């Protein structure tokens, strides 16, 4: 994308260095602060005006040091730019200094320089301010375009500079920034000024500072950097530091691992991880001071659900990957956001696999990352991985499953094709060539082509720059198979103009179950014939490395189900997921999928069960309004999961492996949801004991399954019990678990009560979507949820609009489970006269999804009913 297609700052003035001073912080009341910034700039030719970015800041004075004051300071709110006008032109100069005085607010919007509320479990430092009845900590979130909320700056990713930061805070609190402390001086009124070392050259969005009543746990890298080990710390507000040990243990190992595989040592003198109590995303990769929402960095061996261990390990690795990929080498502009996020996602999983080979994370990647990306990318309203971004303010909506998950899936496909070692060789060369600078997708392809001797650009271009992905349709003849590629849309109505892309598709033909690494031939034309194929057993897309779906003839699908013991875990997941998606699109059938899944009742793998549960959950959700079909699908699910559930039981063996525990939680949850009486009775018995004070009665990893059953089966008293649990839990993941469970309510009055509770000040804004996702997946009450959102839109929107990421996420997750054209039209009509900037793309995706669901329901309902009846389920 040429710079003329972007709305960017004038190229005449380039920043080189910022010296930022923040002082007179008002801790309480308006939460205002004062600041000065001296920006060393290179003025390329004489100018009468200098324009930079500010948002919700008041710039009171501006001057060129040793020269002129600005005669006029004007602000354009729409473009978030402040222009300094000078009476006489400012001469060109390789180094001039702009000195600005400004004031801002430590807001409560999780953007810019902001405050987070929390309830301290121990006595905090004296000076810690209150906001209502909560304590406050302060931190920054500058990605993508919110550094301009913290201080006046040239806020674009390729306008890199160095930074000096100094901040005046109360004596009894701790301040952090990207670099280590340089000096601390006493100041007025019991305060001190903390100054930090100068940063390397970097983008504004990676600058960070924070302060609060912090404490930390510390370890050191085992590898030496410039002759010494680096300090690694996890900071929390007072009372929580011990829960940072698991992240700490992962962090120092991952830093050493990445330094080794990227062939570049971690470039800063320290790594700090900070748990932030209110956080819009999962985490943020600020260089040297990485910030996290608490559930993504804290873990309590006694109290936390083990699944959060997996989450913490992965998020820690993902953010550390960015220290090289994103921070050391930064995308040139936001249209290439995927370069940061897709790569960090893939290599984050690679690191977790390196540390925990027994977690089988690549099978989890196939069920979670690949499927989520394919579901979004099968909509007309999807977007290419690399998407034009005219204005930095548009970028928030592409922090989505395409940039992260399709991005990482195509990287997995490419690294599978080139070989992981060759791929990493190319990555190391790319990082070395562009360090401390900016780069593009083509720069990465060039380095990978050089390392592999293959033309990477040629076969990756359609995957990155075109929308969607293909389905490979298989036709069988004796001794050979025909394969044809075409665009896959979940609505099933592909028109010629939708289907113009020709993808490079690695076929991954597996004919011998014992063979490792399938045949590497690829389909590069519309259709082709593969000869000498052994018909007794074959499967395409070995280990689900390729980002596409495969549509087999019905008899082959059935045969693969019968031969499932010959398949890898990833193959089984792909088989089920593809069959389910093809049924939605009308290229396969739901009875075909059910007949396939029926064979899996003896399955023992967590990731395979996870895919089966997700696919069945979606079918049950779509056909929920037809009582006969709903009852038949419920008994189908029950008959499928009951044997495995009864076999695995409730008790965790000492030293049991992680995946067995996770499978137990999944099966009990699925069985309870399908009405398995023994599971329901045992869950209720255990919860009673738990309530009476026996906290060991409900294992932390089974809390979600048990609490969900209590809410679903227990009416008002069950609902109130879990709402009380929400209010009293001290576990880091406890509130999230309770919100998901509360979404299982079965009556309109409880839905309304729960939503009133959610939109009160009892639930943090960052968690608003958690309970509503659960309500949306609950077919009994999803209409009540939509009705509530409509009737209370002004209050709902006011709460959500604290941050555009939150509005977009809430509406996408809350409205896309319907399967009715009428509801789809109703949603469109409701938003027609609203200002939907910031979530307009999300609403189009909702409309596409609901419409695909509705078509599917109309098309398959009758035959699903007949199949269930014929097979004794209805």
TrEMBL record:
* Comment on bound cofactor: Binds 1 zinc ion per subunit.
Q: Which keywords accompany this UniProt record? A: Aminopeptidase, Hydrolase, Metal-binding, Metalloprotease, Protease, Zinc
Please tell me where Zn(2+) binds in this chain. Answer: 318, 322, 341
Q: Which Gene3D superfamilies match?
A: 1.25.50.20, 2.60.40.1910, Neutral Protease Domain 2, tricorn interacting facor f3 domain
Which InterPro entries does the record match to this protein? Aminopeptidase_N-like_N, Aminopeptidase_N-like_N_sf, ERAP1-like_C_dom, M1_APN-typ, Peptidase_M1, Peptidase_M1_aminopeptidases, Peptidase_M1_dom, Peptidase_M4/M1_CTD_sf
Highest taxon in the source lineage? Eukaryota
Record domain Aminopeptidase N-like N-terminal: where? 15-206
Q: Which Pfam family, any one of them, does this sequence belong to?
A: Peptidase_M1
Q: Which terms in the GO cellular component ontology are assigned?
A: cytoplasm; membrane
Per the record, the similarity remark reads: Belongs to the peptidase M1 family.
> What's the name of the protein?
Aminopeptidase
> What is the organism of origin for this protein?
Lepraria neglecta
